[in-house]
Amino acid sequence: MENRVPILNLWVDPVTMGQALDAVTGFVERGTRVHSIFAVNPEKNFSVPKDPSLYESFKNADLLIPDGVGVVLAARLLHGLRLERVPGVELMHSICALSARRGYGVFIFGAREAVNEAAVNALRELYPGIRIVGRANGYLGEEAEAGLVERINRSGAQVLFLALGSPKQERWLARNAEQLTHIRVCQGIGGTLDTIAGTVRRAPDAWIRLGLEWLYRLLSDPRRLKRQSVLPLFAAAVATARLRGTKLPCRGAGGEGAGL
Ligand code: UDP
């Protein structure tokens, strides 16, 4: 995207939900290759740069959505930008609604078998007419990968949701993007199928509005503590960059990475 915004070690695209959906429509209806959509959050800010090929995947992603409040606040402090939060889970729902309206074929890959099946059933109820043309759980093993890619291609799906968690899903796409012949949009959705299937509850609206979804997730699954322990580090790094007046240049047109 033209005006991609640097946030410490990564970037984010300053899109609204509506603009993200317009981009998806363009990817499906005018694209000739797979376009990747990944979420950016404080945890990835530290983990992604440690792996050069993962870092490349993020750098070349077609859409990096401001998934959480951490990145939105960082953009405000570092660049004075007021970004709208575009949570991956909400973008996935919106892409499903769009796909139902416009007849895009959807393939849903990831999560445990029962979760995947329940989520697909729930999506069919939520979005009548949606063409979910294939699904697979996320525990097939690497030896089944070529067969799965073949299945995705034969399904004719244009939209692929990858629910393997990060960084598994981004690595899977890096390995397989060139073999995907019909997919035009691929969104990494992490644990979203668990919330759709109802095995994991999303935070109540009031918590989301207060920017406390991360705290709700932490309280409901304390095993996330290790992962979320980077939040204070992220806040400190943003504060330090702000105090130093580090105003990283926002990427201009013609910069690195693929365009929207
Ligand atoms: N998962 C999977 N295959 C794997 C590992 C994980 O399908 O080999 C699924 C897991 O069942 C869960 C999701 O990936 O549904 C990971 O959820 P998490 O909330 O950890 O991901 P995040 O949203 O934090 O990236």
Structural account:
By secondary structure, the chain is an alpha/beta fold. The chain has a domain at 15-69 and 82-191: 3-Layer(aba) Sandwich (Rossmann fold). 48% of the residues lie in helices and 14% in strands. It contains 13 helices and 8 strands. It has helices spanning 17-30, 42-47, 52-59, 69-79, 88-102, 113-126, 145-155, 168-176, 192-197, 205-209, 213-220, 225-228, 230-243; strands spanning 5-7, 10-12, 35-40, 63-66, 105-110, 131-136, 159-163, 185-188. The strands form 2 sheets. It has a 6-stranded parallel sheet, sandwiched between helices. It has a two-stranded antiparallel sheet with strand order 1-2. Helix 1 packs across helix 5 and helix 4 (69-79) runs parallel beside helix 13. The longest helix is centred in the middle third of the chain and has 15 residues, at 88-102. The radius of gyration is 18 Å and the shape is globular. The structure holds uridine-5'-diphosphate (UDP). Uridine-5'-diphosphate binds at residues 110-112, 138-139, 163-166, 168, 190-191, 193-194.
